[in-house]
Specification:
Blueprint (H helix, E strand, L loop, with lengths): L1 H5 L3 H13 L6 H13 L3 H13 L6 H13 L3 H8 L6
Helix pairs in contact: 2-3, 3-4, 3-5, 4-6, 5-6
Length: 93
């Protein structure tokens, strides 16, 4: 997944999440963090929000990498900031 992202194929890497599920290998926090990091680098905050929502539904925990990306995006101050903040309580404690 990281290799796809590094080669500019972030959407293909994103699609691989579904493929992983179909093949019985559900993505973990590392898989999500890889995509979240790359989507944040290309300012695709809507995709970051979508991925965070998927993580919450799967009851995956936020880790330091996820939190760092969220904090970096919050510094941008765009319209997705409020949405990002609203997602945090959805995660397991």
């Amino acid at each position: 997944m990281g290799g796809l992202c590094k080669n500019g194929q972030v959407e293909k890497a994103y699609d691989s999440l579904g493929e992983m599920e179909e093949k019985g290998c559900p993505p973990n926090v590392v898989s999500f963090n890889t995509l979240i990091s790359y989507f944040s680098q290309i300012n695709e905050t809507a995709k970051v929000v979508e991925l965070l929502q998927k993580m919450a539904k799967k009851e995956l925990f936020l880790d330091t990498i996820t939190c760092s990306v969220i904090l970096e995006l919050l510094k941008l101050g765009d319209e997705t900031c409020q949405e990002l903040l609203s997602l945090i309580p959805m995660f397991p404690a």
